[in-house]
Amino acid sequence: MKAGEKFVLGSIGVLLLFGMIRSFTHVKQDHERDIPYYSTASHEVAERATEIYRVNGCKECHSLWTMKDMMETVPAPILDGIGSLRSESWLYDYLSSSDPQSMLKSRLKKEYMMPSYAKLPEDDRRILAEYLASLKVKDWYLEQTKKAEYEKLTGLEYKK
Ligand code: HEC
User: What ranges do the domains of the chain cover?
Assistant: First the structure.
C-alpha cells in the first residue's frame, strides 16, 4: 500500500470513529431531552390508579403517556405533567365535584366536557388524585405544557 493510500484510509477511519462517538453521545442527549414527563408515584399507586383510569374510560378523552383512544377526538387537556400545574388537593376536589365546570370552565359541548366522578368511591378518587399529582414535567418543558393546557382549555392562543 502506498503512503498516500494509507493516509486516505487512515483519515476515513478516524472520521468514522468520530462520527460514531458523536452519534452515540447525541442519541443519549436527545433521548434524555426527549421525554420531559415522569411520575414520582410508587409502583403500587401507579398500578392502582392506572386501573381506575382504565375502568373509568379517562383515555376516551385524555391522553397520558401518549396513549389515547385513536377514535376519540375530544380536545381534552393532555394529562402528562398535570401534577406540575395542579396540586393534589385541587385534583381531588375536581374529581369529587358534582359540577367540575364550576371549578374549570369548559368551552365544549356537554358530551365532551369533563364528567363528574363524585360517585366514585372516595378511595379511588384519592388514589387518582395522588397519581395525577405525581405526573410531573421537567422544567425545560414546563412552559410548553402550560401553553398546551391553556390552548386546549380556552381555544385561545397562549401569551406568556
Ligand atoms: C368525555 C370526555 C372526558 C372523560 C371521559 C374524562 N375527561 Fe377529564 N376532562 C375532559 C375535558 C374536556 C376537560 C377540560 C375541562 C372541560 O372542558 O370540562 C377535562 C379536564 C380534566 C382535568 C383538569 C385538567 C387541567 O387542565 O387542569 C383532569 C385532571 C381530568 N380531566 C382528569 C380526568 C380523569 C382522571 C378522568 C377519568 C376518571 C377523566 N378526566 C375523564 C374530558 C374528559
Answer: 1-34, 36-154
pLDDT of residue 71: 66
> How many A from CA of 53 to the centre of ligand 1?
11
Q: What residue has cell string 477511519?
A: 13
pLDDT 10s digits, 73-94:
788 999 999 999 999 999 999 9
Domain boundaries 36-154, corresponding CATH code: 2.60.40.420
Residue with the bigger pLDDT between 28 and 99: it is: 99
- Extract the C-alpha cell encoding 49: 390508579
* Ligand 1 pocket, CB under 6 A: 53, 56-58, 60-62, 74, 76-77, 82, 86, 91, 94, 100-101, 104, 106, 108, 112-115, 117, 128, 132, 149, 153
Q: How far apart are CA 21 and CA 9, in angstroms?
A: 18
